[in-house]
Amino acid sequence: MAQNYKKPVKQTDMAALFPLIAPIIEQGGAVKIKVTGYSMYPLVSSRRDSVLLGKYERLKIGDVPLFRREDGSFVLHRIVGEKNGAYFVMGDYETKKEYPVYPNQIVAVAKGFYRKDRFWPCSSFRYRLYSAFWRRTVAIRPFLLKCLARRK
What we know:
It is a single chain. With 152 residues, this protein is α+β, with helices and mostly antiparallel strands. The protein has a single domain (14-151), classed as Umud Fragment, subunit A (Ribbon), CATH 2.10.109. It contains three helices and nine strands, in the order H-E-E-E-E-E-E-E-E-E-H-H. The strands form two sheets. Strands 1, 2, 3, 4, 8 and 9 form a six-stranded antiparallel sheet that branches. It has a three-stranded antiparallel sheet with strand order 5-6-7, with no helix packed on it. Strand 8 and strand 9 (118-121) form a beta hairpin. InterPro entries: LexA/Signal_pep-like_sf.
């Protein structure tokens, strides 16, 4: 008789995990990682949703790269602009742009998101529409975020 059990889950930070996933991404593979943090809400919710990370050829505005800050932390934010060979990035739940993020800091790019176990590829029309909306509403984002907070 089979027993019902939950597989043990070990949580670790991205700095410890990165040496294991970097070769997979460099060889053209993809890695599914659980998202922690709220900077990309409402696209993904912390500890519920996941991101599928893969290799990139060329980045463009709207892409969501995984990059490493100078302090060593890993961050997943959307590219909202480009200037002098560096990127402006911003989380969907943020009101300020981060600049500069240089190409050598970027280690992977989101290929899609698992939201409540349903996969949303970044190439889909629905995702591109969502991405365009959040990039174009930076000026009214504080108001939108207040509305989202009230809805919760």
